[in-house]
Specification:
Elements: H1 2-7, E1 11-16, H2 25-42, E2 48-55, E3 63-68, H3 103-113, E4 117-122, E5 128-134
Parallel strand pairs: 1-2
Antiparallel strand pairs: 2-3, 3-5, 4-5
Helix pairs in contact: 2-3
Length: about 160
């Protein structure tokens, strides 16, 4: 996704910490690509998209992958609809981004296929944070601890790492 981001004048920062998982690596990669694609589409030039992967908060079990952008965000009232297939939020006549509206529904499907969940929250400093939380190796998933699944804060991604 780096070439696409660079073309739009957007930087990708990555903070990846080891987490044990029984997961379909290709599916998780697809979820990450979909999240990054959305974040890049909706971020203004000169901004940073942050991806973080880490074990979930102590006691929550599993691992979390989150992508935060500095775009306009998604109003709380529309967040559940954002995961529906073929739903594109915003005014159809003024829409500037391309897409079929299946990216986030696929992300949710992938998370649920791994026994996990997907959620949307406000990103630190503005924008949106979309995260998936899945059980770790041999674990059952505990209920989410916070609105953003206790996602590792993508705002803390090291500035010199590129994805």
């Amino acid at each position: 996704m780096e070439p696409v981001a660079r073309e739009r004048g957007i930087r990708i920062a990555v903070d990846a910490r080891p987490a044990l998982a029984d997961a379909d690596a290709a599916a998780i990669q697809q979820a990450a690509v979909n999240l990054l694609d959305n974040a890049i589409k909706f971020s203004p030039p000169g901004s940073t998209v942050r991806l973080a992967v880490a074990p979930a908060e102590a006691g929550a079990g599993g691992w979390v992958l989150g992508v935060a952008d500095e775009g306009p965000g998604i109003p709380r009232a529309l967040r559940d609809r954002a995961f529906e297939r073929f739903v594109r939020l915003g005014d159809e006549l003024r829409r500037e981004t391309k897409g079929a509206g299946i990216g986030l529904s696929l992300v949710k499907h992938i998370a649920e296929g791994h026994g996990g969940t997907a959620c949307i929250a406000d990103a630190p400093g503005g924008g949106v944070l979309v995260s998936i939380r899945c059980p770790g190796r041999g674990e059952r998933l505990a209920p989410p601890v916070a609105d953003a699944h206790s996602t590792p804060n993508p705002s803390h991604a090291p500035p010199d790492h590129r994805g």
